[in-house]
Design goal:
Distance between the termini: 46 Å
Strand content: over 45%
Helix content: 10-25%
Oligomer: single chain
Amino acid sequence: MKRLICIVGVAFAVLLGGFATAADASAAATRSFADQSLVRHSDDGWAVKLSKSGEKIRSVPALSRGHGSYEAFLSMRGAAQISGSGKVPVDAAAVSTGFQVSCQWQMDGVNIGMTAGPTAQMSISYPPAIVLGAQVMPNISTTLKNGVSVDVPFGQKALAGPSAGVRLDGVRVEISGCVGARPAVRAYVRVAMTSKANDNTFNLYGKPHLL
């Protein structure tokens, strides 16, 4: 009888191990999402095309193994193109891409940490102000609140010509302290442009996905 119990116990452990392995493999599977594009027109008459392509999410077991911790690798390309014959020249424009991140319920503040690479820094504010330069962003962090989403920019690029894009491949994201429902992310591509007459900002949003 003792031997039978032992055999059953070993078999059950092996079975559970198989389930755990299958769960880890499923969590590590890469999910790909449809490309999107849209065209908007500025107040000066320029046609602005925004596009999102190559969006992928690979969720993996969190390296920290902490309670409410999630980890994933995100990939995407955001691009913009300005065309047509506007009434006023474009003084400056930039395309930025990233993800909106949210957590349904958090313990003591949800920390979002991510690793990024070199990026061309450019910001357009109101009134318009331009900052150009090269910057290395090894780590970005922010804090979430209950039921609130935050925009996490992964890269920005000035439009020196009619088009520009930012590609992100395997950007690591780790979210800790998020309990309840799994955290959700939504990709975005944003174009900000300015002329002597008008400032315009256009956005393209992907569909929300759970990590």
